[in-house]
Amino acid sequence: MKLIEKKCPNCGASLEFDDQAKSCKCSYCHRSFEIERNQDNLEEIELIFSKTPKFFLIPFILIFVSVITIFVFVFIGISSYDTFQDEEILDIFDMEDVLLSDLSSIQNSDFRFIDSQGTSIITNLTFGYHEYQREGRIERVKTFLAYQEDENILIPVYQVNYASWPEKTEKYTVYIPILFEDVMISDKNINIHELSSGKTTTNQYYLGNSGFSIPAYDSLESLEQDFILPLEEEYIVTQK
Questions:
Q1: CB-based contacts of 60: which residues, under 8 Å, 6+ apart?
Q2: Any bridge partners for residue 164, and if so which?
Q3: Do both 82 and 14 map to the same domain?
Q4: Is residue 13 in a domain?
Q5: Whether residue 38 sits in one domain with residue 149
Q6: Residue-level pLDDT at 140
Q7: Average pLDDT for residues 169-174, to the nearest whole number?
Q8: How many domains does the chain have?
Q9: Is residue 107 predicted with pLDDT exceeding 70?
Q10: Between 178 and which of 96, 110, 118, 196 could a Cys-Cys bridge form, CB atoms 3.0 to 4.6 Å apart?
Q11: pLDDT of residue 65
């Protein structure tokens, strides 16, 4: 049996299925697809969205469940209000434990998607610029998670090497943080649909005397001092 790997047409995540399969399902967005093969070239495969059965009772069931859920939450909220007044809010150490737990829940498959998004963003920084070129691999060296009132900001930091072109007499190693805002993290994985918010919003680092700059830092120490530390004024921040 041969495994075939494709990109999910709905969310872009990686899909794997054997070469005899007639259908497959994305483990991230849970969309199902029919597998169509070109009869002249069986290796040419197209993924077609599966038709969703029309169950007319589903909307009524969803409405009923929603009403019951709202009633239960309102009842619990009212009955527990007085008790809540006597409880202390989680201190910063408890919250750091929660954040570390969130970071550890991010699976390797999620990080592969995160890194593909981050690499794409970093690659575009010097796209079409020929005086300095990126060389070697883009490597993630740290990951930060910032929390504020149910808002998660995921910040992977990448080490990137640049060299002057074509003689390569000047070489620079820089560190570029990528911000993914409003990231939802569950006990299984992160919501990869939120990763479209990835962006670079840092100080500009100049390569040589060319006047060409990229949003980066010359060391991890300066990145943490100038970029991460100011976040701690408004967010609880932890790292992996």
A1: none
A2: 132
A3: no
A4: yes
A5: no
A6: 92
A7: 91
A8: 3
A9: no
A10: 118
A11: 73
> Cα angle vertex 114, ends 112, 116, to 5°?
70
Q: Name 208's Cβ contacts closer than 8 Å, sequence gap at least 6.
A: 132, 164, 170, 172
Q: What gap in Å lies between CA 200 and CA 157, rounded to an integer?
A: 11
- The domain in which residue 204 lies consists of 92-239
54 occurs within a structural domain:
no
Same structural domain, 123 and 162: yes
Which of 70, 87, 104 is a domain's end point?
87
Report angle CA 12, 14, 19 to the nearest 5 degrees.
125
Q: What is the pLDDT of residues 39-55, one digit of tens each?
A: 777 677 888 877 655 44
In terms of phi and psi (left: phi > 0; alpha: psi -120 to 50; beta: otherwise), the region of 68 is alpha
Backbone angles phi, psi at 151, to 5 degrees: -115, 120
pLDDT at 136 over 60: yes
- DSSP H helices, the chain, are 58-79, 81-86, 92-105, 108-123, 220-223, 229-231
Burial class (CB in 10 A: 0-12, 13-18, 19+), 236: middle
With a threshold of 0.85, does the pTM exceed it? no
Q: Is 9 a domain residue?
A: yes
DSSP 225: I
Q: Do 25 and 122 share a domain, yes or no?
A: no
Question: What pLDDT is recorded for position 221?
Answer: 94
CB 16 within 8 A of CB 5: yes
